[in-house]
Design goal:
The chain is α/β, with parallel strands linked by helices. It is about 35% helix and about 15% strand. A hairpin with a 5-residue loop joins strand 5 and strand 6. The longest helix is centred in the middle third of the chain and has 17 residues. The radius of gyration is 16 Å and the shape is globular. The protein starts with a helix and ends in a 5-residue tail after the last helix.
């Protein structure tokens, strides 16, 4: 691989991570991308957690059992730098709102074979101080149920089980906080 083709590949990967992949790249077909709110509105009811090989920090959870709670579903993998950059924000939200009705569920969906190891996921949870529930989605079944495409990706599910917010990539932390606070009737 030449330096130029490597640089092009890295640029395409970076675009994919922020949700701006050009048409025909990373499995995308030539179509317009919906905004996060349009995507969430189209999805309606949040899919259940399916095909989970391990649960960490929790007994197995289901969306039906989480009705009445606000749920932040965070798709991530420990080998993704963008995902790692979002973890402090996710853990802060969990600390801020867990006693007020927020449940965070990290859905660890591996990109590479070494990320499939439960021991490696457990070590990453310890390294990043993650105490909220994490589902290991080794076969991407929950990822596919959500129609997810990018790491990281956050979905906010309201108390009725509807997806009300979706964001791919880093950022929008204050907006995510406001949406959760509003759903929980908390003045942040």
């Amino acid at each position: 691989m030449t330096i130029r083709s490597l640089a092009t590949s890295v640029s395409v990967i970076a675009l994919c991570l922020i949700g701006a992949a050009p048409a025909g790249v990373a499995g995308e077909v030539g179509r317009e991308q919906a905004t996060p709110f349009e995507v969430a509105a189209l999805q309606g009811t949040a899919p259940n957690f399916v095909g989970i090989t391990n649960w960490f920090n929790s007994a197995p959870l289901s969306m039906a059992n989480l009705r009445g709670k606000v749920v932040l579903v965070d798709f991530w993998t420990y080998g993704c730098v963008n995902c790692v950059n979002t973890l402090p924000h996710v853990t802060q939200l969990y600390a801020k709102y867990r006693d007020r009705g927020l449940v965070v569920v990290g859905v660890h969906t591996p990109e590479f074979p070494f990320e499939r190891s439960a021991a490696n996921v457990q070590a990453a949870l310890k390294r990043h101080g993650i105490t909220y529930p994490v589902a290991q989605d080794n076969d991407s079944q929950t990822w596919n149920a959500y129609g997810n495409q990018y790491w990281p990706s956050q979905y906010i599910v309201d108390q009725n089980g509807r997806i009300v917010f979706h964001h791919d990539g880093e950022g929008r932390y204050e907006e995510i906080d406001r949406v959760i606070g509003r759903l929980l009737n908390v003045n942040s």
